[in-house]
Amino acid sequence: MNRNPQSRGRKAMRGWPGAVALSVLLVLGACARDVGFSDDHLADFAERLSSDDFQGRESGSRFSRRAARLLEEHYRQAGLVPAFGNSYLQPFGFEAGVEAGASSIAWTHDEREIVFENAVPMPLSRPGEAEGPLIYGGMCIDAPDRDDFAGLDVRNRIVLCLRYGPGGKENETYAREITFQHKFKAISERGAAGVVFLGTSDSPGARAEAFSRVSFSPGPIAVFLDAPAFFDEIDFLEEDEQRLLRGEPSEHRGALLGRLRVRSDFRTAFHLGTNVGAYLRPFRSDQRLIVLGAHLDHLGPGYFSSLGEADQIHNGADDNASGTALVLGMGLALRSWDSGHSEAPPGVGSEHWPDDFNVLFLHFDGEERGLLGSRRFVGSRYFAPQQTVAMLNYDMVGRLRPDKGLALQGADTAGSQWREVIQIAYDRAGLKQAEDPDAFPLRLIPGGYGPSDHSSFYEKGVPVAFFFTGSHPQYHTPDDDFDLLNTDGMARIGVMAFSMLDQLSASGRRLSFVRAREEPRRSAFEFRVRLGILPAYDSTDADEGLLVAGVREDAPIRATGIRAGDVIVRIGDKQIGNIYDLMDFLGDATTARPYRIVFKRGDQTIESETLLMAAP
Q: CA-CA distance, 324 to 346, in Å (whole number)?
């Protein structure tokens, strides 16, 4: 039995009950549709999708469309039925943050004009041009105990601001005040015409694409410039920067540095997303449908929503090449069996499923931007809510570990019979081992709202099951790579799915939709505001706080110093015991004011204030 939490993908399932049946790869004969189900198949699919060839499958990019076409070709060759009329593809457009235009700076200094064509537009106010005297504002920090603008007149001037604050990026004292947004707000309130955020000698550059929203509100024209020439031309700048980083006062704050003309250009970016869908059998209006779904997109180079370093390929092996590979693998195996070319996949005890039973395999684009693909599907004419018995969603199913086991959300979305189906399938998958009964636990989460595509179906009254093997440090970072996947575990989750399908295939069997009592009537993606954290949905400490799995780079809450592993227990006047308490709080929250936040780090209780961020 492979119990290594970092199990590598190519290992066979030796030691598991039924491993031989599960690992058999049927030899391809004259018919290309003779396909079995094995962890080797899943490894092939997952490794391909998470390779650099797909450049991280950014939502609505040519690389997510490349992934969609690959899935389409697999389904076509296997003989599955197109889900969108005569097509396997469902295209849709969406806004996707910021597309940078040509932005520049012309700086007149010591009777010379220096032009920088590499300025980065900051979409904090509408694009445009501004010209005026350039005034040095140091680090431009505006805090209750510090005002870098004291004694300065920045009206109708361009302010030169160094990035971050004393100590650099990790300053906890002024964590909120050193953000671009807070500095811009302080400069705007003082009537400046523009601002140039200057990259420090050891800071990373900024990109317009990192902003999830475009502002077209009036305000100072804002750009970022990573320009060593400024340090070369201004003789005091490098020394003053070092003084400020050490926490010492600037000796040159308020210095006039010539005249500057700044131009900022950007626009709303539009992407073309592509869903992929295929039926096991030809669709009929009298059939009962089960949807197996997974999102195919990820973060691309990580400019949006990365918890690691941007401008690197985020291959998204677990998130969500794992789920994509699993749904595809199940689709091909079921089609091969249903058409008589192979034996039944493990977990399927029936000789044949009734003619009134069908399975729809869906792959969604745009999940990382807010469930866009699944929302597009359930809002289209191709969604048959009255026929859909349940939706099974696979998102981050590639890291099955003995301690974390398998989390399944949606256990109470169809009453007690749903839990029975789930438990029987779990038992048949052989996850529980006699020699260690506590390993690989099944943790059932009642409600149906969550941060993945099943929420779109739950909102439409469909029972759901969201499979998830838990968070990890590589989530939304460039380190989420194939060699960390446990494809043995993925195959076991596939066996569980086959068993659930087999149980639901029984002639005439349907589920009664139930809306779980303890949760709000909307998903986390419907709120106007967000906190900017990744909750650990697989946390087992019920009602003792919300475990943080990650923090967004552009979120104001980073200013509090909160990090992965901390547990949020209160925001504003709201006690936080779980994800549903957070969603309840967000329903009435606003970006217009800060909120007190209390979180725990081990035995330490930390209090701070945070602003919220607008939803994209």
A: 19
The pLDDT confidence band at residue 4, using thresholds 50, 70 and 90, is: very low
Q: Please state, in angstroms and rounded to a whole number, the distance separating the CA atoms of residues 471 and 535.
A: 9
Structure tokens at 102: 């040509």
What pLDDT, on the 0 to 100 scale, is given for residue 18? 34
- Please tell me the distance from the alpha carbon of residue 187 to that of residue 130, in angstroms, as a whole number: 14
> How many Cβ atoms from other residues are within 10 Å of residue 432's Cβ?
15
CATH topology of domain 19-90+273-504: Aminopeptidase (3.40.630)
pLDDT, residue 532, reads 84
Q: What are the structure tokens assigned to 267, written together?
A: 């626009």
Query: How buried is residue 173: exposed, middle or buried, by Cβ count under 10 Å (0-12/13-18/19+)?
Result: middle
Residue-averaged pLDDT of the chain: 86
Per-residue pLDDT band for 537 (boundaries 50, 70, 90) equals low
The C-alpha atoms of residue 558 and residue 175 are separated, in whole angstroms, by 7
| Integer Cα distance of 540 and 536 in angstroms | 9
Residue 229: per-residue pLDDT: 73
Q: How much of the chain is in helix, strand and coil states, percent to nearest 5?
A: 25, 25, 50
pLDDT digits (tens, 9 = 90+) for 170-204: 777 787 788 888 899 999 999 999 999 998 656 65
Confidence at residue 14, expressed as pLDDT on a 0 to 100 scale: 29
**CA gap 322, 396 in Å, rounded:** 6
Give the phi and the psi of residue 104 in degrees, each rounded to 5.
Answer: -150, 165
Q: Answer yes or no: are the C-beta atoms of 119 and 104 closer than 8 Å.
A: yes
Q: Supply the CATH classification number for the domain 529-614.
A: 2.30.42.10
* Structural fold of domain 102-264: Glucose Oxidase; domain 1 (3.50.30)
The domain limits of the chain are: 19-90+273-504, 102-264, 529-614
Whole-angstrom distance, CA of residue 449 vs CA of residue 454: 8
- Range among 14-18, 156-160, 414-418, 429-433 with highest mean pLDDT value: 156-160
Length of the chain: 616
Strands of 382-483, DSSP E: 388-394, 406-409, 442-445, 464-468
Q: What is the pLDDT of residue 296?
A: 99
- Token pair belonging to 366: 């745009």
Query: For 121-128, what is the mean pLDDT?
Result: 90
User: Letter for the amino acid at 600?
Assistant: K
Q: What is the Cα–Cα distance from 362 to 352, expressed in whole angstroms?
A: 23
Would you state the structure tokens that stand for residue 251, as one six-digit string? 């000796």
